Amino acid sequence: MTQADLDIRPVTLDEAGELLTLRRAAFVTEAQQYGDPHIPPLVQTLEELSEDLQADGVITLGGWYGHRMVGSIRVLVEGAKATLGRFAVAPDLQGLGFGTQMLLAILPYLPDGIEEVWVFTGRDSVQNLALYAKHGYEHQHDQTAGDLTYAFLRKTLGETDA
């Protein structure tokens, strides 16, 4: 599989069901790791997801391998800040580089003026933290929400990133 094999583009409203299915499959392992079956990606409804796809300031990219959506990433744009979330890769394809391709694909979709990109993940999600660190995201702080503790990482964009 090469980068040319993955078609990355904005997710349409017609693809919301496929996106919901991908996210649920991808986040089951995260829920199991933290012992919480009620993490937000697993309880979001199709209606809520559809509303999110149409929301101002939200960019949702999907990655297709052939006709199958195998990855997705959501970006919330607020002023000069972009926050990544709901980053998902199909469980059977994790570790093959699709996540890296999705992470790198967001930059051209960001509007002008974005100075920093934030991402958060479970504090104990070692593979996620390693991926972000490899691509220039630096740990800033941890924040607890209910029983989960999230690590927040930031990447400052420079001339070469935009």
From TrEMBL:
<dbReference type="InterPro" id="IPR016181">
    <property type="entry name" value="Acyl_CoA_acyltransferase"/>
</dbReference>
<protein>
    <submittedName>
        <fullName>GNAT family N-acetyltransferase</fullName>
    </submittedName>
</protein>
<dbReference type="Pfam" id="PF00583">
    <property type="entry name" value="Acetyltransf_1"/>
</dbReference>
<keyword id="KW-0808">Transferase</keyword>
<feature type="domain" description="N-acetyltransferase">
    <location>
        <begin position="6"/>
        <end position="158"/>
    </location>
</feature>
<dbReference type="GO" id="GO:0016747">
    <property type="term" value="F:acyltransferase activity, transferring groups other than amino-acyl groups"/>
</dbReference>
<dbReference type="InterPro" id="IPR000182">
    <property type="entry name" value="GNAT_dom"/>
</dbReference>
